[in-house]
Amino acid sequence: MAVNAVSNLAQKVMGDQPTSITSSHTNVSRQEALESGETMKALTWQGKFDVRIKDMPKPKVMEDHDAVIKVTGSTVCGSDLHLLHGDILQLQPDDILGHEGMGIVESVGKGVKNLKVGDRVVASFSIGCGECPFCKDQLGSMCEKTNSSSVMKTLYGQNFSGLLGYSHFAGGYAGCQAEYFRSPYADYNLLKIPEGIPDEKVMFLSDIVCTSFHSVVDVDFQPGSTAAIWGAGPIGLNVAQWLKRCFGAKRVVIIDAVQNRLEFAKEKIGVEVLNRDGMSSQEIVKKLYEMEELGWQYSFDTAGFRYAQSIAHKAMRAMALETDTPETLNECITATRKHGRISIAADYAGLANGFNIGALMEKGIMLKGNGQAPAQKYMKKLLEEYIAPGKFDPTLILTHRFDLSQMDQLYHAFDQKKTDKNSGVGVLKTFVQTKFSSPPGPGMPQLSDINVLQ
């Protein structure tokens, strides 16, 4: 019987300790319903593999530094699939999902100084206060004030920041896969967008553009180096674009089992590809050494904890003997050059068995967990220095546009890596519109029906 390995392990770690969350900034939708009576359409979590569009209470300003945003664009992220699979702790029925979004400021608290009603903004997926030591050090994703989960503190020793729409384990904030969302500490977490840049070009600053950039700079990638990327999803493809177009990589290969994603990477970004379908870990590593005799100088894990390959690790996850499979990381370690570096941009949640710590130590490899990216640090810089001048194109991996009313179906289509039956293009990043959205920008995907995916 399939079980939630992360939750079961957490229960073993926590014992009978309380797991409640208390914060004036968390998901207060039920209280708002009683006070306002206004509703909106929003995607909600109802259980494992069960997400639904529902009429939910419209948020309002609750604190002096809040802003309420009319959503003009959101999307589904690979990290959202962990929620769909029930692999993240402390989800509750009717939690509103979504951590990548943008919109128009509808209202602000009296403490908001740099934004006004009508401003077009992108929201950082991580929520910082702007005042604690980590925020002052430009590490808003490590904020000390915005996440009070006792479960996380017990499992990790410290909490990272709250996240939009990502369970009470990450602060319990209502997300932006909705017609409206509330942004705490709005001056710190929202970036005002200048006129003349279409929504599609800027929306992904909320997460994946910053996350992929952070993955590269966090391991101090050097021009002229070689790099292997595990995972040809949106993060992996963005990492490849950063390396090839902006950081002067000598050679880049992406490893994945989805052929249409690999073809996309080869055609659109110009990287080498390796289809791992049917190959063992040993065969993958052997092939990578045939390509680079001394090993790869940098490796990037953009796949994550859910992708167990062997029967043994599938069984251990099912029986809650581990939360995360180490197989991808072990491939990275064995394929990386001695004294090379490994960047972990992918999500890992808990504990893994059989991690090859011996090879890590003996080969002198630096394994760097990137953490949740401090998007607040990067959003303005990447907009002005890379996106506006055309050096980096966030829309390179934008394949489809859908309506919010079909987002529940989009979760399952993205999870199943479906393909457009008309164009043959696999679904990657999508732009999800609401009733407040502008028409598609020049050259951007037009509105599709979810039934085009098969």
Automatic annotation (TrEMBL):
It holds the Pfam family ADH_zinc_N. Its cofactor is Zn(2+). PROSITE patterns: ADH_ZINC. Keywords: Metal-binding, Oxidoreductase, Zinc. It comes from the Eukaryota. One of its GO terms (molecular function) is oxidoreductase activity. Signal peptide: none annotated. Residues 64-194 form the Alcohol dehydrogenase-like N-terminal domain. Residues 16-36 are annotated as: Disordered. Residues 234-310 form the Alcohol dehydrogenase-like C-terminal domain. Residues 17-30 have a biased composition (Polar residues). Gene3D superfamilies: Medium-chain alcohol dehydrogenases, catalytic domain, NAD(P)-binding Rossmann-like Domain. This is GroES-like protein. It comes from Meira miltonrushii.
